[in-house]
Write a structure and sequence with these properties.
By secondary structure, this protein is an alpha/beta fold. The protein contains eight helices and ten strands. About 35% of the residues lie in helices and about 25% in strands. The structure holds adenosine-5'-diphosphate and magnesium ion.
C-alpha cells in the first residue's frame, strides 16, 4: 500500500500587499509529505519559510493554490471549523516558546486540552504524561522564568504534542538555544516522532538536524529548489 499523504501543497502562492506594492513571497510551491515523515525546510532568511509554515498551520491563507491536510481541502471545506481543526490536528513550536508567563509548566501544557473543553482532571493527566515524556516531571510547577531555555522549549513541545496532533510544525525551534541544548531538543523531536508517529515539518538553520531528517526541502526566493528525494545517504560534496 502506498504511504498515506498527510500534507499536500499544490501551486501555493502568497503575496503581501504593502501600499501599492505587491510582495510575492511564495511563488508556486508544490510538495507532499507522507504520514509519519520528518521533513526539514531550510533556506536563507526572508525566503518565505515562516510564511509557508503559517499557511501549513492554517494560521494564514494562501493567495492562490491548495492545501490538503489529512485529505481535507483546508481553505475550501473547513473555513468555519479551522480553529477547532487546528487545535485537534496541528501542534506548533516556535523559536521563542510563547508560553504564558503567569502559568506554570503543567498549566501551560494543559491549555490546548482545556480549550477543547475536556474535564480538568483529564487535561491534567494528559499534560503530566506529556511533560514526563519530555523529561520534565520534576518541573511541573515552575513558571517559564523559572526554567532554562531548553526546558522552556521542552514545555513548548509538550504543549504542542499534548493533543497528540497528526502534524507537528516547528519554526526554528532551537534557533535561540546553545548547540548542546539544541542537540537535546533535536533528539527529543526524533524520540517523539518515533513514539507518536506524527508528521513533522521543521524549519531550521541547523544543517545537521536538516540532514538527519527523511527529507530536506530547500526554499529559495519563494520556490522549492530541492525536495531532497534522496537526501538520505547522499553527503554534501
Ligand atoms: P523566513 O522565515 O524565510 O525568514 P518570512 O516568511 O518570514 O521569511 O518572510 C518572507 C518575506 O515576506 C520577507 O521579505 C518578509 O519581509 C515578507 N513578509 C512576511 N510577512 C509579511 C507581512 N505580513 N506583510 C508584508 N510582508 C511580509
Ligand atoms: Mg522565519
Amino acid at each position: 500500500m502506498a504511504p498515506q499523504i498527510m500534507v499536500s501543497v499544490e501551486g501555493l502562492k502568497k503575496n503581501f500587499l504593502r501600499g501599492k506594492k505587491t510582495i510575492r513571497v511564495l511563488k508556486g510551491v508544490d510538495f507532499q509529505v507522507h504520514a509519519g515523515e520528518m521533513v526539514a525546510v531550510v533556506g536563507p532568511s526572508g525566503a518565505g519559510k515562516s510564511t509557508l509554515l503559517h499557511i501549513l498551520g492554517t494560521l494564514d491563507q494562501p493567495s492562490e493554490g491548495r492545501l490538503l491536510i489529512d485529505g481535507q481541502d483546508i481553505f475550501r471545506s473547513l473555513p468555519h471549523h479551522l480553529a477547532s481543526f487546528r487545535n485537534r490536528t496541528i501542534g506548533f513550536v516556535f523559536q521563542f516558546h510563547h508560553l504564558l508567563p503567569e502559568f506554570n509548566a503543567l498549566q501551560n501544557t494543559m491549555m490546548p486540552v482545556l480549550i477543547q473543553r475536556a474535564p480538568r482532571a483529564k487535561a491534567e493527566k494528559m499534560a503530566v504524561e506529556m511533560l514526563e515524556q519530555v523529561g520534565l516531571s520534576n518541573r511541573l510547577d515552575h513558571r517559564p522564568v523559572e526554567l532554562s531555555g531548553g526546558e522552556q522549549q521542552r514545555v513548548a513541545l509538550a504543549r504542542a504534542l499534548v493533543m497528540r496532533p497528526k502534524l507537528l510544525l516547528a519554526d526554528e525551534p532551537t534557533g535561540n538555544l546553545d548547540d548542546n541544548t539544541a542537540r537535546g531538543v533535536h533528539q527529543l523531536l526524533f524520540n517523539m516522532n518515533q513514539k507518536y508517529g506524527m508528521t513533522t515539518i521543521v524549519v531550521t538553520h541547523n544543517l545537521h538536524l536538516a540532514h538527519s531528517m527523511n527529507r530536506c526541502f530547500s526554499l529559495q526566493d519563494g520556490l522549492i529548489l530541492d525536495e531532497g528525494i534522496d537526501a538520505k545517504g547522499k553527503e554534501a560534496e
